[in-house]
């Protein structure tokens, strides 16, 4: 519309400067068309004629009556040629702009970003996270097993400790018994020595008694009465029985010594087992402490890994959100530029149609007879309105004009008013 208005302004200015006064003083006849209807306007002081079809108007001067009509027409053609050249320049600029838009679209079109590297990174981090979780689970199971084993060893330690305390108590009792038996043994040894001496003396006496019984000696002496043999034998028998009892006690003492030695050996083995259990408990405690420290280190590493993964996931999510926002903005820009491109293309199409219409009007002007004047043009317009069966009278029929055509007629009237 702006191009059309500028064109009409250029034609009006040029016509006011170039057309001679004779043409301006001639009574013109103006006809215009809109929507297939013909409208005739006649003024006595009008010096220009408007002709058009499809809602367009064009000033047609009377060429045959003007002495320099060809020159005027040539200048108008030159003017139109310059206008067409401008249109061609605008078309070239439009094509260049379209090419720039295509290149910009090629450069600025959001290509699908290659997120495979991020996906691989996330997948590797997820695998590491799963491996860490699995390793942590295994460590927790090992810790639980170690705790159960430690509990078992603790129970064994408690049982062995109670057994050790019982054995130590028995050992203390056996030591007391050993001291008593040692004292009794010493006493019995002394008694045995005494009994041996008594035995030797008794044996000696017995030998003498047998010798006395084996020989007969008749000696009459006046002496003290002899020893009572029965009482001596009874005494000897009592001594022998006492010696037998002592021997039995010695035998029992030997058995007790053997029991004490076996108990001592058992005590030594118990002590060695207790020392071994202590070493085992210490090694297990050290292992438990190392496992606890390893668990704490792994928990700290797991926490750091989770924090690092959470930070990376947050950064990736922010990047994805930013890319989605940029993609939405690019889509909006693309849609807006597409609409602008369509609007420019529509404007170009309308300009091309207008140019074709102007060319058609110029061709019609070139093909019109040279004797055609303003009166003939008006007469033809009236004939077009009245029809072929009516006389050629200056009678016009009212035509139905749309609002757009009425606006164009008003514009043409204002343009014609410039030449009054």
UniProtKB/TrEMBL annotation:
Residues 73-135, 174-205 form a coiled coil. Residues 69-369 form the IF rod domain. SMART domains: Filament. It comes from Erpetoichthys calabaricus (Rope fish). InterPro entries: IF_rod_dom, Keratin_I. Residues 256-267 have a biased composition (Polar residues). GO terms for cellular component: intermediate filament. One of its GO terms (molecular function) is structural molecule activity. Residues 246-267, 387-406 are annotated as: Disordered. It comes from the Eukaryota. Keywords: Coiled coil, Intermediate filament. The keyword Coiled coil applies. Pfam families: Filament. This is IF rod domain-containing protein.
